[in-house]
Each structure stands twice: as structure tokens, then as C-alpha cells.
Amino acid sequence: MSDLLKAMENQVMRNQLLELFQEAGPNGANEKVIAMAMKKAGYPVKPEQLKKDLYYLEKKNLIECVKCENKALKINMDVYMITPDGIDALEGTTEVPGIGVE
Fold this sequence. Notes:
The chain is an alpha+beta fold. It has helices at about 5-25, 30-40, 45-60, 85-90; strands spanning about 30, 65-70, 75-80.
């Protein structure tokens, strides 16, 4: 795959992730839910690629990761949610390189 096509594919995937987080609202979503939702939307993603995309979006301050832990219930997971900057990128009020907003 050419570098240009790979870059476009990455932008589309990141945009889809932002849209998913916007739909998830303030409760966000964990990696398992994200992967299942992406697959259902027609964008199956490998776990290692999902981690890279989540890291990318987090470093751009478009999403945030919150650690959810409850030792009594044996819950320990990362929950991701969209930030105000992520919403601005989706709405097109802020241009973010690497994000393919349509």
C-alpha cells in the first residue's frame, strides 16, 4: 500500500474513532467496546493498530483516558472519551493534521 493511501486510511480510522467517542458521550468506552463498534461499523481494526490510534488521538488531546478500577469487583480498565478539542475537530471548527474530517 502506498504511503498516501496508508495516511488516508489512518485519517478515516481516526475520524471514525472520534465519531464513536462522540456517540459514547460522557461515559466513554473501553477498548473492547471500541473494537466491537468499529467492526460493526465496517472498520475492523487489529488490537495493535487500535492502541496506536488511541495513543495518537490522546497525544493530540482529542480524547482522554481514564483508569477505572474497583478492586472489590476486580475491575481494571481504561475508558476513553472525547475531549472538547476532539469535538471541535469533528465539527470542523479546528483543523487537526492527521484527522480526516469529512
